[in-house]
Predict the 3D structure of the following.
Amino acid sequence: MDFRVVCISRTIAAGGEGIGHAVAQRLGYLYVDEQIIERAAEQAEVDPAVVAAAEHRQPLLRRLIERMAVGAELAGTVTLAPVPVDVFMMSPTVLRADTDDLRALIRAAIHEVAAAGQAVIVAHAASMALGGISGVLRVLVTAPAETRAQRLATMQGISVADSTAAVTASDRERRDYLLRFYKIKEELPTHYDLVINTDVLSGEQAVDLILSAVQGHA
């Protein structure tokens, strides 16, 4: 099997972003993270913050979605067609956008990037969105909460108590995200092809493992 796309899911302060950048550079692949949201927003002709807000359950106060029947269709395709602007006309009866519609945009953008191939995607649970699709290597980069809290405290110059609270909050938000967007009640190792613990392995070793998995199947 040829792995044309590498999806890297990561917990906070596990080092997933740096590993993703290194893998992309070594492979000559495109590195994609928050560009996913920007691409979805571009295709929908709506501010990126509006699409991003769907992931944090924030109310949308302007350019609200009254209807977006095309959203479900977009999620099943790999090429996005522009969404008519009138889809986003203000409606006095709608107080917030439908998160299912915005989720469809996000997933459609992920599929579009994956279809183009030669990409490392480090964002938005792409491993879940692309589950079961040939040519996608799904990787989880993580470490024990205590290790991540220590790292975060050092990186941000905050107390361990504050960093521990931040890690706990981030992990909770991650679980909520997977449940709301992908109906995953419990994240399992079997959701991934490769699980890397950076408490044991260095970032360089993690990169080598991922490259070995990709190039070993080339």
